[in-house]
Amino acid sequence: xxxxxxxxxxxxxxxxxxxxxxxxxxxxxxxxxxxxxxxxxxxxxxxxxxxxxxxxxxxxxxxxxxxxxxxxxxxxxxxxxxxxxxxxxxxxxxxxxxxxxxxxxxxxxxxxxxxxxxxxxxxxxxxxxxxxxxxxxxxxxxxxxxxxxxxxxxxxxxxxxxxxxxxxxxxxxxxxxxxxxxxxxxxxxxxxxxxxxxxxxxxxxxxxxxxxxxxxxxxxxxxxxxxxxxxxxxxxxxxxxxxxxxxxxxxxxxxxxxxxxxxxxxxxxxxxxxxxxxxxxxxxxxxxxxxxxxxxxxxxxxxxxxxxxxxxxxxxxxxxxxxxxxxxxxxxxxxxxxxxxxxxxxxxxxxxxxxxxxxxxxxxxxxxxxxxxxxxxxxxxxxxxxxxxxxxxxxxxxxxxxxxxxxx
Length: 408
Ligand SMILES: Cc1cc2nc3c(=O)[nH]c(=O)nc-3n(C[C@H](O)[C@H](O)[C@H](O)COP(=O)(O)OP(=O)(O)OC[C@H]3O[C@@H](n4cnc5c(N)ncnc54)[C@H](O)[C@@H]3O)c2cc1C
Hints:
By secondary structure, this protein is of the alpha+beta class. It folds into three domains: 10-121, Butyryl-Coa Dehydrogenase, subunit A, domain 1, CATH 1.10.540; 125-250, Beta Barrel (Butyryl-CoA Dehydrogenase, subunit A, domain 2); 258-403, Up-down Bundle (Butyryl-CoA Dehydrogenase, subunit A, domain 3). 54% of the residues lie in helices and 15% in strands. It has twelve helices and eleven strands. Strand 1 and strand 2 form a beta hairpin. Helix 1 packs across helix 5 (83-102), helix 4 packs across helix 8 and helix 10 (340-367) packs antiparallel against helix 11 (374-381). The two termini are 36 Å apart. Flavin-adenine dinucleotide is lined by residues 94, 127-130, 135-136, 162-164, 207, 210, 215, 383, 386-388, 390, 392-393, 396. Flavin-adenine dinucleotide binds at residues 94, 127-130, 135-136, 162-164, 207, 210, 215, 383, 386-388, 390, 392-393, 396. Belongs to the acyl-CoA dehydrogenase family.
């Protein structure tokens, strides 16, 4: 197990500087345009693919970095550039992690490369768990997958919502109910291969922030996928369901379902995205406060402004440390016994909302306009307290973990 470290090594610093260069030179200059267009920034994703930032290899390398700092460092830099564009670049990763966490080696080898495509023909992937009546309450999921033994196919029906890249993805990973009696323990994840009949995009959402990232409903109407598309395979599913039934009978121990495993692993990564947005807004605010003069002196000369910046920097650093710790724990297989993953996401996402709002205040009227990036960063930051488990759900997880009580 790697020791926890609070410093990037030389190799990581090199990768960080390379990512920062891409974020500063390619992502940031394109941010305002794609925010207004509210479209997937395909040319930017292609640029990222050309230099190796949009690729399975790159994320696998960061994902398996034993220090745990690879993914948070990468997320922070890309989201420092712009949250909407960065989510378009890394959104495929959520589906890829779903396959890496639950799939067989063969499934990983077959499907993950098709999620990314290549630099000349980039592709996206979508992870579809949320439904109109099943957001925080994952157990209310209705999308049903039924096994057709004669054909060795699964038939999937239902409506997914809020899917990042939903409908425009090459590969969709869909979570569905296979045993309604078992609640969230009766869920399984499926690959829906490219061009599968019956899968269609529903409405595309017009959003408050991260507008360069495509978010849409995905409608599944008698979608048939081969048995080999069940992540982990049928034998493993049958075993897991049998265990869950036993436990349900005994009224015992909770087992994690496939979708929850994906979310748990990705929480510190979302925290790192929030740190990136917060840092970006803080830097703009610091620069502005040093140069903007009122009453014959820079506005930072007032404690009222300087202390806000001091608070912002402190909160961002604290958020980063929580994120790094949780990420190190996740990579090294240390269980989140005090809900450290949720703590990192809760604190970093709330920090991003607070810090971006303070940045607007420090820029005064300019902060409120689209001439400066902090209003976009503030709109973008609101997503971090919502997706992959709202702040309220993180507090619930933390409180339950600490108390052992079934707090509601
Ligand atoms: C831009 C965007 C991208 C997304 N991308 C994806 C994706 O790629 N794939 C995917 O599957 N999903 C995705 N989501 C869905 C996201 O994970 C859900 O929106 C989120 O889990 C919350 O669910 P909900 O919107 O239904 O809100 P609800 O669950 O309806 O919650 C509404 C409010 O009630 C609160 N609440 C609910 N239950 C409790 C409780 N027990 N205690 C206290 N408060 C509670 C919530 O915290 C929240 O404030 C995305 C969402 C957005 C907005």
